[in-house]
Records
---
Amino acid sequence: MTELISIFVGMALINNFILVKFLGLCPFFGVSKKLSSAVSMGAAVTFVMFIASTATWVITEYILIPFEVEFMKIVIYILVIASLVQIIELFVIRTNYALYNAFGIYLALITTNCAVMGITLLNAQQSYSFPESIVAALGAGIGFTLVLAIMSGIRERLEMSDSPKSMKGLPIAFITAMLLGLAFSGFGGMI
Amino acid sequence: MANMLRKIHPIMFVTLVVLISVTLLVFTETLTSAVLEERRQQQIVDELGNIFPEIDNFVYNEEIEVFTLYAGGVTIGYAFLAIGAGYVGDIAIVVGLEDSETVKGIIIISQQETPGIGDRITGGGFISQFAGLSINAVNFKQDGGQIDGITMATISSKAVIDTVRDTAIEKVKQIEGVE
Amino acid sequence: MASFSKEFSKGITISNPIFILALGLCPALAISYSLDNALGMSAAVIFVLLGSNIIISAARRIVPNIMRIPTFIVIIATFVTIVTLVFQAYVPNLYQSLGIFLPLIVVNCIILGRAEAFASKNPVISSIADALGIGLGFALALIVISLLREFLGTGGISISLFEQLFNAGSLSFTLPAFSEHPLAIFVLSPGAFLVIGLLMALFRWIGQKKND
């Protein structure tokens, strides 16, 4: 149990996907201008991470390792993630259109999101067991959502502040991310 | 019929692309894995003298991936590579055993732990604790073993300890199986 | 030939993937703490970009439209796996320090983006120019970032990449007084955000000066 908790805290706070591991930066800078879209994106990424980790764990454990074709994992993981995203998208369109309107556009962006591919590769690299992979995926997703939400709150205010012309937009967002990263490095001593 | 073909064609196309891709990759893997295996062995051979200064000959058993070491015709120990996941990436350790129960010494040959924190596992103070320990005593003091971890780098030091102990237990079984 | 050089130079300057388009940021921030990493990553990205651009542009007329993206993904993933295997065998230290960012080239927006926006619509020659231009633009950005980070963060620069490859000597240079008290923040993760943020602002400032 302590093992799982330390994986969760490690993934969510200490090795935060965005601030420390630098995974999923495109949505971080792309959709962190409004709080509501940041939370939707975070939730969509967390969900896909969870499903993708489950699927790739099963494939790795029962196909890649027994047949000794682990070197095929890049091709297989990316195909699994791409098809999962498609299936989820179809499913959401047919069952809950309101949900699709809220999450749909983010789903399409998720295939090429390195956070999702990243968590599946990390699980494989650490040879996590099934519960460990799931906890790692949830931790990473929640940490991702948390930082996305914090960042969007800050950026909503930054829009109104008077920063130099060449710093407006992305550059100032990077400087803000640095300060957030420094703050998060304080979690380093927890484990 | 033509309609059917039009529907199936895209799927057949992607299947073909995947087949070509798999063929190429299997080919590349066969080429590179030979180089990789040779390099791994060389890395162990390079470290043998550092763990067993008196060594003058060795025999490599490919099946169980263990070096049996000799000095003056007498077996002086065994060596093998232990790889485990650290806090950041894989840690590769050459482990030397005096006999089927005692560790002679270990050397970390590659790791990516956090600079200044986790990478202190390569420091002599931590590594030297392994020398002369019985395999079962390779554990933290609080867990019934004889090793002091590194402050602030518990995960990295635990990774080394667990990798060394678990691989050693497994290899000893294999060595005894062969003999 | 004129169009070749046009496609080539646009990637380095006006549509520089990192500083202007802000694409492929994850590896640019994550592995740019040393010059060795930057050179290795650039070589890998250029190889994958060139390979996938050539194949996709050569096959652009026979790829069924609805299976376009899956086909591109398989082609790109194949090249990425080849790079990963080759790095693992021939430059193991680099392979280790690039970690998961080597396989993650497969989801690098730059590569799928060029396949979809350029190579699938243009002939092979201009796709090669496009790949080389964008690839070198990425490489230059990475090299500038890593030079700044490694120098400020460790007080010197060292290259050991060629030592691993050809048994040549390693190049290194340190600034004596500074290397004893370097600004370690630059090799840590917050420093990456700072360096890229400032460089982006600089690029924009130069752009604005030119426009005025």
Note: The longest strand of chain B covers residues 74-85.
---
Amino acid sequence: MKRKMLAFFASFLNTTATFFRKKETKDVIWETIRTLAMLLFSLLCAVVVIALASRDDPGAVKVFLTAPFEDGYTVSRILTESIPLMFTGSAVCLMSRAGQFNMFVEGGFFVGAFVSAVLAPELCTGTSSFLVPVLCILAGTVAAAALGYIPAKLKSGLGIDEFVSSLMMNYIVLWVVLYLLNNVWGDPEVTNATKYLEDFAKLPFLSRDNELSSGFIMAVAVAVLCALFLFKTKWGYEIRLTGNNREFASYSGIRTDRVVVYSQLIGSGLAGFGGGVYLLGNYYRFTWKTLPNYGFDGFVIAIMARNSPILVPFASLFLAYLRVGAQQMSLYTNVQHEVIYIIQGIIIILFGAKFLMDMSVKKKRGKEMTV
Amino acid sequence: MIGITKVYPIGVVANDSASLSVRKGEIHAVAGENGAGKSTIMKVLYGAERAEGEIFLGGKKEEITSPKVANALGIGMVYQHFMLVKEFPAYQNIFFGIEETDRFGVLKKKEMLEKAEELCKTYDMPIDLDEPCGNMSVSNAQKVEILKVLARGADILILDEPTAVLTPQETEQLFRQLRLLKENGYTVIIITHKLKEIKELCDRITIMRAGKTVGTYNVAVISEAEISRLMVGRDVATEIPKKECRAGDVVLEVKGLSVKGKGEKLAVDHVSFRARKGEILCMAGVEGNGQREVVSAITGLSSAYSGDVLFEGKPIKKQRIKAIRNRGLVHIPEDRLKTGCDAGSSIRDNLISLDYDKNSVFGFINYKKLNARSLEQMRAYEVKGSLHHKMAMLSGGNMQKVIVARELENDPVLVVADQPTRGVDIGAIEAIHKKLVEIRDEGKAVILISADLSEVFRLSDRIIVFHEGKITAEISDVSSVDEIRLGRYMLGLETMEANDDET
């Protein structure tokens, strides 16, 4: 018996050893270490910046780091903050895998939220079905996707750079929505707000006390589904091939003009979906006066996750943690929460630089292939 | 140079303790299969890459940290892909980076021209120094590259596969110039895997295999068969057994194909030809004489042409690439990195790009099945690496094997093989050639585009020669011409009236 156990133990050690000796495993471990090191470094930078900004307030650093884990409510704040980031981050990942830099995640998120908020009170008259939020979010998704179709089609049909046109689209959408909000579909009693949402129009809470909506689960699910979509389905395959080497993709028979369009349609749609989920999960009415910036945050997340949707939840939670920390800090100390943007900048530079470095290594290796 | 070990960051050992010693004033060949580490060792010597190990020059240990240091030590390199500014005239390219200027930074054109002219004369390289390099023929551009190295005062020249793009006549000329350099005391190191050239030109040869040096030999005492055995590690058949050609129905018909080129001239000028089942039709010619445009037209990649291209009787122009591909047109493209593969994806993803959609259920790709198939193909084509390795980690030869495997295993009716063995080692060339002949023997049509004359003669049943966008010769009996004659057709020195053979 003892012998058997020993033999089993030895074989277990053996397989573990080969597993760790494998090159792919080594790569993964190495990547993880590097990523963690970069996160730690940016955290360190944050601490230094805060320490400098709060010389008369020595507790600020501690508040920044620990306050997010203070109690259930603050933890739930982290999860809540990460919801929009996961949606927009996944959307950006999908589009940049196809080589498309569509900024309409921002506008899409905004429109998705607006459409769901406008539609919910209308649908509520008469029914009180669980279908109400579903339909509202669906409508928001469709609206965002339809608007995202414009820059996508401009790109594939006329070769107009999607980056510029989608950026412009964001502002068109912003002002049109604000017009509609104040003149057509808003709450006539107040300015710049929709009517209040009925309770059953809202998404159910996971924890009512901590105000954590079930949107969190949807957000994680969306990231996982995006990963499956990218790496298991034929459409994901087409997206990856087109993004990496469009010439090769079309030589293989892939209709890359279509890929360009549908990747952006899905991306914008996801952003709209996220907007709907976030609004119906965490607000009682739509009151945004400017673009909420979650779309642009999506790019930060995608850079941190290196365009891998499965890493999006982790990146989102990290950024959300920093943000909640900064909010708590500005509550308890005299350091403003805007320091968070310094940290965000550092993260972008760190991860962006690594991104570029990897790409240049790839290119260099590509060039060596000739002999 | 003693004991260079070069380890790539990703972990593929390219030069695993290779050593090389070259004598002053000799022409030294470095030969080996693809991925054997020839280029790497040369790049190390030229300072373009760093490695462990030591380099001795004239008995003195040197640290060559960059090409600049190498230049200062008198080492110059001519890359396979030319590093010239296309828009600049030849003399400016020759003195690029070491321009002579007056106090105000204005180029001293006269002095530079004089110097360049002298170099040209000394080494018998007549070129027009005022001509922009982009307009030059490949062989002239190569001369500019060599002059560029000489102008920097190099006395050790490294040439990376210099004859890959030259016709026999141009090769002959290059060899004359290299011998002249040798007589003037220069040392020439040339990377090649063409055995004939080694025998003809070189004094000594260092053979590399799998990152290690096998040995250095006097060319005079080693036979071609010996060299190829040492390179591959086993005997290689130089002849491919071929059944007699039995050409069948027309698969592809090209009628009056014209493609616009730069400026007034037509890149392809009213070209007509047919490809038949059971036949290897070779499009021979110096690069840039319209073959590329013809290939784009017959593979459906470009539809900017006039005339007709009929694949199995139907015009290609109106069809999507997918449709043409599904009907059995396979294409091994000339530029494997740009067109032939996705370096950022895995080997597996590169192997399934033609039929991933046919192997999907509800949009989900049946990876289980395709993984098994890809593994099988990798084994059959002897691709080194594993399924999930990035394509970019492979050497050029292995990359080409992946592309060839994907294309040829996709039920071809017509194979368009554009430089299928360029930069590929002897072992793989043999395998690819065998496969092409096999496909032809199965009664399928093959169109081969090649600048390598030995390949042309080895494989083709019929040759059409392109020169300046026109077919200048059509040779139905390949054994009736020799390399010299074919070279003359390719250079446009001789033409043959194309007679339509309606057999």
Note: Chain A has one domain: 47-360.
